[in-house]
Amino acid sequence: MTRVELDTPHGPARAELHCAEEGRAALLLGHGAGGGVAAPDLVAVTRAATDAGVHVALVEQPYRVAGRKATAPARQLDAAWLAVAEDLGERWFADLPLLFGGRSSGARVACRTAEAGAAAAVLCLAFPLHPPGKPEKSRLGELDAVEPPVLVVQGERDAFGKPEPAHRREVVLVAGDHSLKADVDAVSRAAQEWLTRVLRLLD
């Protein structure tokens, strides 16, 4: 595992790089609004991805690196993410397809930036479809706008809602809530199976 610091328009970001033996793609994973890259689902997916032959970069947004607890505005998150993706793509993962992903807020960033960052696929862990108790404030448009293949892994009791499957979008429901802590093995299995299929598409 290697840690690197990366410049962005909104201050330095950090990435924790986990390399597969023979990486055929690279998956960038972002954290949730109030948590970091040590979240159990992110750790489980990192292991699953490297086992499947995919390098992983766990990306810490600049506000986290700076020690701030309040999340940055969406446009800052997106700009920092794209800067990190460009840097990693040039310096560490040259000539490899980039996959975007993350949990909760990080999943939203991955969806919003997929087109601009030329992501080959998007992996969403606990996508927050709407604020708890406010289904009318839907963020489904962010998911619907993603063109490449998408996997959403969602807790069956997630108070942030559950997206429906759609064209090129798979949804896997696992036990538990928004934290995805109840069955991390199921999260890992879903991610590994999907990544294996995505790699076949990319070959």
From TrEMBL:
Query: Which Gene3D superfamilies does the protein's record reference?
Result: alpha/beta hydrolase (3.40.50.1820)
Give the KANL3/Tex30 alpha/beta hydrolase-like domain ranges. Answer: 24-185
Name the source's superkingdom: Bacteria
Name the Pfam families for this protein.
Abhydrolase_11
Check the record and name the PANTHER family matching this protein.
Answer: TESTIS DEVELOPMENT PROTEIN PRTD, TESTIS-EXPRESSED PROTEIN 30
Q: What is this protein called?
A: KANL3/Tex30 alpha/beta hydrolase-like domain-containing protein
